[in-house]
Hints:
The protein is mainly β and about 180 residues long. The protein contains 1 helix and 15 strands; from the N terminus they run βββββαββββββββββ.
Amino acid sequence: xxxxxxxxxxxxxxxxxxxxxxxxxxxxxxxxxxxxxxxxxxxxxxxxxxxxxxxxxxxxxxxxxxxxxxxxxxxxxxxxxxxxxxxxxxxxxxxxxxxxxxxxxxxxxxxxxxxxxxxxxxxxxxxxxxxxxxxxxxxxxxxxxxxxxxxxxxxxxxxxxxxxxxxxxxxxxxxxxxxxx
Length: 181
């Protein structure tokens, strides 16, 4: 079990590796899963997620491939919640947390690494301010990425806000079934 770190184009990458050589790579830009390498459906060792070969393309194209989506994943009709007007970024609606800033395309802070005899992981954070994209409350969002030695990869999210607010995050990984990038 290990964590391999590297940088490229100003982006930090962290690869979680278990004892069976399965690996998951996460970059700090958008707390994004860029690769999961394991045996595919045909038994070949391959990256099973869709994405870009160059991390800079995640910044350029802002496709949501593998990104953390928050404060709210999905669409909020008419971009309104209670008395709050949220950013309209999908016609009259609010999509995937807005776009001023869109935290799927912002750098996240590595709070700490996790390492035990049967798990490796990362805890990443992003702080979104009161009023960003119309949401009430300053919120600290924490994303936990954990790979265990049995090949189980989990992502969990928590949010702590100083006001009542919405929070329904997700990860936007697309599965490629072993198809090369």
